[in-house]
Amino acid sequence: MSKGSLFVISGASGVGKSTVLKLVMEARQDLLFSVSATTRQMRPGEVDGVNYYYITREEFEDRIRRGEFLEYDEHNGTLYGTLNGQIREKLTRGNVILDVEPVGAGNVRKAYPDATLIFIMPPSRQELEERLRGRGDTSQEQIRLRLNRAEWEIEQKDWYDYVVVNRRAQTCAEEILRIIAEKAD
Q: pTM value?
């Protein structure tokens, strides 16, 4: 039986989701973060089971066949997904935040119609591109692919419950915290 609320955060790669979510999680110790599974390689400083569950493509595809994912999506040649069991277990303990792409958010909405969907927008396309280039860990080809994907993702914002522009991470986090307080408390 669920006791918590489910919050879905989406936004284009490079929009600052990770930074904003870190601030949100630090501000509310009662929030539980859903760790996604991925087939991408671990980046420097990332930890398996904390940032993502890093699994092989074969294992990911086996889990899809077994119906273990609430949602999953492939983009830029990498699979990402949320494990059903993790969400069910965490909802028995409290409010849960998922960081998923629009395709995944749509699948979460089907399974959990009461979930609150929040889309984080970049201030501009130019700033999004600058943020992606500023990471220093993304190839020119990956930047091009992510910007193309970002255009499609941004078009999906209209079916989200809330749209928040990330001009400054702290302000964006505060706005998301207000939404969470309104919906969960």
A: 0.87
